[in-house]
Amino acid sequence: MVGYREGAPHAHGVLDVGDGHRVAWWVSGNPAGTPAVVLHGGPGGRATPGWRRYLDPARYRIVQFDQRNCGASTPSAADDLVDLSANTTAHLLADVERLREHLGIERWLVLGASWGSTLGLAHAQRHPDRVRALVLFSVATTTRREVEWITRDVGRVFPREWEAFRDAVPPGDRDGDLAAAYARLLHDPDPGVRDRAARDWCTWEDVHVSLAPGHRPDPRYADPAFRLAFARLVTHYFAAAGFLADLAPGGDLVAGADRLAGVPGVLVHGRLDVSSPLDTAWRLHRAWPGSELVVVEDAGHGGDAFLAPVTAATDRFAALP
After folding, report:
1. By CB neighbour count within 10 A (0-12 exposed, 13-18 middle, 19+ buried), where does 321 fall?
2. Angstrom distance (rounded) from CA 171 to CA 184
3. Strand, coil or helix: 62
4. Which of 119, 182, 296, 298 has its Cα between 20 and 30 A from that of 2?
5. Would you say 183 and 230 are in contact if contact means Cβ atoms under 8 Å apart?
6. Pairing of strands 108-114, 34-39
7. What is the C-alpha to C-alpha distance for residues 5 and 312, in angstroms, rounded to an integer?
8. Which of the 8 DSSP states describes residue 302?
9. What is the pLDDT of residues 157-194, one digit of tens each?
């Protein structure tokens, strides 16, 4: 198996980041190694041990954390009356900085995938002096256009499944913003309505990432609490186009890629990724001076096919000053 062993954390804590939020974090690998922060996907995923396979534990000090309202961070987006108003990209970027300062880290490598690549790019564009390098895979920048693609246009590839996804919202919402429509259902007072909406959203999540050979349904969606928290957070962010309007020119991180000049980076993307089509990574690569794009021909939106090219990139950056 390609990839490193998932070593156990040697440090763990919970950081009070304000607004009533407490963010859970873990550190593994070499305490004296090159710092690296892992930004998980979703929004609403979590910091799982599998992420550590991409980083050499002998050479990296590996920092992981659960983003606001998910995983071991509190309050949970699965709580009945959770308030997500203090969960935006700006809040997450502030949390990343608080955690970096709390751990006494000056600069680190940033590793992220899918939504984590969006957050990683936003962090690096805001604080390029804090970033040694970026390694991003299954690249997404969460623009309004990308959200429209995931929630509507990719239905051209999966028409039967998309019609079921669309028809799960009230008729009056079917021609509008589907992420916003689902977000309303996911906060309905009726727990049955919330659960059905979470199931329907997560069923569609499994469909639009399923094109690559060997795809298997995500077992996380069998957990009612996980799928509710995940669906609530994804729709919360998608309905707001990633809350990027005030963070990037025109809400598009590609337009701000010139801020990354001098920051090395590797983008790894699957040719068969119809959830986040390759043109996003291509545009970012063209706009980011000094970046490298690696296309994995038989990969979709994630999976073990990324282990070799991603670990090759992190290995290369391990000795950066």
Report:
1. exposed
2. 14
3. strand
4. 119
5. no
6. parallel
7. 15
8. B
9. 999 999 999 999 999 999 999 999 999 999 999 999 99
From 117, 236, 273, 285, active-site residue: 273
Kindly report the backbone phi and psi dihedral angles of residue 138, in degrees, each rounded to the nearest multiple of 5, phi listed first: 50, 60
CA distance linking residue 130 with residue 98, whole number of Å: 13
**175 belongs to the catalytic site:** no
Phi (first) and psi of residue 95, to 5 degrees: -65, -40
Give the type of residue at 236: H
Spatial strand order in the sheet of 265-270: 11-18, 21-29, 60-65, 34-39, 108-114, 131-139, 265-270, 291-296
Does residue 148 contact residue 289 with C-beta atoms inside 8 Å? no
CB 46 within 8 A of CB 40: yes
Give residue 65's Cα distance to chain centre.
Answer: 12
Q: Which residues contact 151 (CB under 8 A, 6 or more apart)?
A: 178, 179, 238
Question: d(Cα 296, Cα 145) in Å, to the nearest integer?
Answer: 24
- CA 118/CA 139 separation, integer angstroms: 8
pLDDT digits (tens, 9 = 90+) for 216-254: 888 999 999 999 999 999 999 999 999 999 998 899 999
Is residue 301 among the annotated active site residues? yes
The residues facing 131 across adjacent strands are: 108
pTM over 0.90, yes/no: yes
Active-site residue identified among 21, 73, 95, 114: 114
| In the block, residue with structure tokens 């094109």 | 211
**143 vs 30: CA distance, rounded Å:** 36
Residue 4 pairs in a beta bridge with: none
Confirm if 138 and 113 have CB atoms less than 8 A apart.
yes
- The answer to whether residue 273 is catalytic is yes
